[in-house]
Structure formats: C-alpha cells, structure tokens
TrEMBL record:
It comes from the Eukaryota. Signal peptide: none annotated. The active site is at residue 156. SMART domains: S_TKc. It catalyses: L-threonyl-[protein] + ATP = O-phospho-L-threonyl-[protein] + ADP + H(+); L-seryl-[protein] + ATP = O-phospho-L-seryl-[protein] + ADP + H(+). There is a cross-link at residue 158 (Glycyl lysine isopeptide (Lys-Gly) (interchain with G-Cter in SUMO2)). It comes from Naegleria gruberi. This is Aurora kinase.
C-alpha cells in the first residue's frame, strides 16, 4: 500500500542526487542519514553534520522549523532559496543537493564546508593579507559571474554568508535574498546595512551590479578589518553610502585602493564589471593562478 502524509514521516522531496554509483535518488528521508556533530545555529534552525547511510557521503543538514518559517513569513523566501541554489553548480557556490520535509521540519541537504565561516576566520586574524584577500575575491567573482550569466543576483554578499572548504576555497552560501533578474521586486530593501549599495539605500531599482558593490565592500573589509561605511548610527551609515565617503588606511596598497574605488561607484553604469575585475592589476598580481 502506498504511504500517505499521515502514515509516514517523509512526505516529499523533489530534488535528485546522483550517488557515487551514479544512481539517482529522488526522495530523501531523515532515516537515510546518520546525524553527527552540531555545526551551528541559524536564524531559522540548526545545522548538523550528517552522513548518508548508503554512500557514506558527508553533508550538512540544515533543519528548519516549519512553524517558525510560517510565523516569520519567510516560506516564500526559503522556497526561492531552494529553487535557485539547487540549480547552481560551481566550485565557489555551496551545493544544495536536495531537500525533504516532514510534518514539522524542512531539511536542506547541503555541501559540508569543513573550513567553517569566513567571518570567524576574519575575526581571528582581524585582516587578510592582500594575496589571501585577492584569492577569496577572485573565487567570489567567478561564482558571481556564473550566477549573473544565469540571471541570478545574490544581493547579500557579506562575510557571514561565506563558508570555506578544507582547501580554503570560499563558497557562497545563503541564497535567501537572491533573485532571478529581471524582477518586479527590484527595489526590495535587503541585505545588511553596511553592504547596501546606494541604489538600494535610495530605494531605486537595482540590477546585478549590486553584487559588484558588495564585492567592493567585502574587499575593503577583508583588507581593513571593518566595512568602509561603518558609523555609530544607521542614518550616518546611509549618508556615507550615498556620498560614497570612502577613506583608506595607509597600509592598503594603491592597487587595492584602485580596485575598491572602481567597485564602490555610485553610478551603476560606471561601476567596474566582473570582466574588468579579472583583468585588474591587483587581481592579476596577487592571484596569478586564477
Ligand atoms: P540564515 O542562513 O538563516 O541567515 P545563518 O547564516 O546565521 O542563518 P545558517 O546558514 O543556518 O546560519 O548556519 C548556521 C551555522 O551553521 C553557520 O554559521 C555555520 O557555522 C554552520 N553551517 C551552516 N551551513 C554549513 C555547511 N554547509 N557546512 C558547514 N557548516 C555550516
Ligand atoms: Mg546563513
């Protein structure tokens, strides 16, 4: 007899995963996994290390509480996150292998990022060296090129959304604010204040160039240890962003200053493109093997 929602924990999963044997599996359930260490707590749930029993494949299982998603009105956002992230395949983008749910929880099967959060790494060492920062920025720029070529805008690039694998390769995680462009919701105010581009602060329409602005803010934070428009109040941060009030400490190299200043440009048409970024001397000289 076929099981129904009331008789089984596993109700539905739609994404397929190719196992090491090449076989495709279209439905997952909690019983397919051995749950290991707790990896961390997110806004809407917990993340655990897990191993798929049959293939012994290691993943991260993100467990989201359905009630909480409903209460906070983010079901739509989570659906979009799953829809977008599950279709992206890039070395610098965290894979979302699939998902399933039962009556209370939604489970996301994610690539395990053994290196943890880039944010923690940055906090520990305060600043990255220029070659280190250039390596991360190059990886991220490649991932963004891949996204933009598929009309996906991330819109929330910041250290908290970046994870690292065991090779210290950076992975974009968290596609909660990403959208397929063009969209009718272009003026949504999203993202962390420090990383918001002027067009979003001013409530104007935005496009994929928002991610270039964020890359500039990120590059600055990597090299300086704090974002460029940090201020005691939200109003002051907004003013600094609108005025592009950008100042560099003297230890930032001229080439790095040049790259950041070309990304943090108010006029989106004049903002540096990803193609130009790959050819910039700071990238070329610090990251020759890109
Ligand atoms: P949200 O994504 O809801 O905004 P968040 O980013 O704070 O919240 P999650 O993405 O849910 O949190 O993850 C919580 C923590 O679990 C992260 O900070 C990270 O340390 C860890 N983590 C999440 N995903 C992975 C993963 N794929 N591999 C390794 N650790 C992970
Ligand atoms: Mg997250």
């Amino acid at each position: 007899m076929k099981t129904t929602e009331s008789t089984t924990e596993q109700t539905q999963s739609t994404t397929t995963q190719e196992s090491s044997t090449g076989a495709k599996k279209s439905t997952w359930k909690l019983q397919d996994f051995e749950i290991g260490n707790y990896l961390g707590k997110g806004k809407f749930g917990q993340v655990y290390l897990a191993r798929e029993k049959r293939t012994k494949y290691i993943v991260a299982l993100k467990v989201l509480d359905k009630e909480q998603l409903k209460r906070e009105g983010v079901e739509h956002q989570i659906r979009r996150e799953i829809e977008i992230q599950s279709h992206l395949r890039h070395k610098n983008i965290l894979r979302l292998y699939g998902y399933f749910y039962d009556r209370q929880k939604v489970y996301l099967i994610l690539e395990y990022a053994a290196g943890g959060e880039l944010y923690k790494q940055l906090q520990e060492c305060k600043r990255f060296s220029e070659p280190e920062a250039a390596r991360y920025i190059t990886g991220l720029a490649k991932a963004l090129k891949y996204c933009h070529d598929r009309n996906v805008i991330h819109r929330d690039i910041k250290p908290e959304n970046l994870l690292m694998d065991s090779n210290h390769d950076v992975k974009i995680a968290d596609f909660g604010w990403s959208v397929h462009a063009p969209t009718t919701r272009r003026t949504t105010l999203c993202g962390t204040l420090d990383y918001l581009p002027p067009e979003m602060v001013e409530g104007r329409e935005h496009d994929s160039t928002v991610d270039l602005w964020c890359l500039g803010v990120l590059c600055y934070e990597f090299l300086v240890g704090e974002p460029p428009f940090m201020a005691p109040t939200q109003e002051e941060t907004f003013k600094k962003i609108k005025d592009v009030d950008l100042r560099f400490p003297p230890f930032v190299s001229i080439d790095a200053q040049d790259l950041i200043s070309r990304l943090l440009v108010k006029d989106t048409l004049q903002r540096m493109s990803l193609t130009e970024l790959f050819e910039h001397p700071w990238i070329v000289n610090n990251c020759p093997a890109q």
